[in-house]
Sequence to fold (237 residues):
Amino acid sequence: MADEQVPENRPDIQLVSLLLHDLETPLAVVKRFLDRVDEGKHDPDNPRHKKLLDSSQLAIQRATRILEDLLDQARSWETGLKVDLQPKDISEIVIRCLRVVEPLTEDKSLQARVHVAESVPSQIPCDEALIERVIDNFLVNAIRSAPLNAVIDIRILSRDDFVRLEVVNPLDLVLSVDLDEVFDIHRQVELRRLRGQCGSGLGLRFSRMAIEAHHGRIGAMRSDQSEAVFWFELPRL
Fold:
């Protein structure tokens, strides 16, 4: 994505930019699959190659949903994000998101571990498509910052009237800044220019919009090991 700033006085342009940014992950997955086919390295009988095909199909479905969201929001951006609350299993959403980014984790030999607390309800009301995109953004940020052979921990916890999801980045690339600043587009653009490693911030800005539309909370913090922990909380009811 280009490092151009999005005008604060044009929420329509901001929202379109956020949605287009979310297309980067599914397109990267599909490109990896097509590159293998083009190089003659795809073997349909190989289980790992079959997994890559499955991930590519899921990625195309995700990109299609994002484009549908884009068209919908282009018609009604003044009303903000539309949230369709349905009872969903948050752990199942996480597993599907991990399947989509699996080719990216394999590139760096990363392992993803999902921890679900026993007190977490089997279902909570949420907009599945929006929450998938938030989790995608968290996972891609973790994958980009992780060193080779690292472990990415995803924790699903119960906190009072909320269900909390945490994604632990094995390596924090922004040690010198307040982590809450990474949700600001313009601060992320500055970090990207300085370091050449951070994202544009559009995905994280969208994530904040999506969680707040659920009347939830979102943020980032440092662990005792100075890892960056990105989290969001959704109301149980």
